[in-house]
Amino acid sequence: MNIEDLRMYCVSKAHVTESFPFDQSTLVFKVADKMFALAGLERIPHAVNLKCNPDLAIELREKYPFVTGAYHMNKKHWNTIELSSGLTTDEIKKWIDHSYDLVVKSLTKKKQKELGFIK
After folding, report:
1. Which InterPro entries match (predicted)?
2. In CATH, what number is assigned to the domain containing residue 34?
3. How many domains does the chain have?
C-alpha cells in the first residue's frame, strides 16, 4: 500500500477528516475529532501510526519486525506500521479498520448515535 492509497482508504470512511495539526508533513486522520491514523509524509519508508488494542499491539510487534511502538505516541495503544513491509493491502486495511473502530467505540453513545453509528 502506498501513501496515497492509505489516504484514499482513510478518507472513504464515515465522518473522517484529514488535517496537518502538528506540522506540514504529518497527515492526521480523525473520526469525530479523534485521531485514528497518522502518517509522516517525509518519512521513508512510508509508515502509518494506528491505534490498536493493547494485547494485539504487543502480539503484532512480536510477530512482525516492521511493526513497532508508535513514535511520539502512547506505545501501549499505538503501533507504527511500515507500508512497504510486504503486507497485503487487505491486511493494512484491516488494521486501519481496527483503529477506526476503536476510536468510534470510544465515542459517547450520544455522539455515536448522532453520527449514525448506532440507532
Report:
1. YjbR, YjbR-like_sf, YjbR/MT2646/Rv2570-like
2. 3.90.1150.30
3. 1
**Amino acid identity, residue 101?**
D
SS3 21: coil
Domain extent at residue 98: 3-114
Q: Which residues of 43-72 are buried (b: 16+ CB within 10 A; e: fewer)?
A: beebbbbbbbeeeebeebbeebebbbbbee
**Cβ neighbours for 100, distance < 8 A, ≥ 6 positions apart:** 13, 16, 31, 36, 37
Amino acid at 65: P
**% of the chain beyond a pLDDT of 70:** 100
Kindly report the pTM of this predicted structure.
Answer: 0.93
Bridge-partner residues for 17, per DSSP?
Answer: 30
Does residue 119 lie in a domain region?
Answer: no
- 14 assigned to some structural domain: yes
CA-CA-CA-CA torsion for 112, 113, 115, 119, nearest 10 degrees? Answer: 120
**What pLDDT does 86 receive?**
81
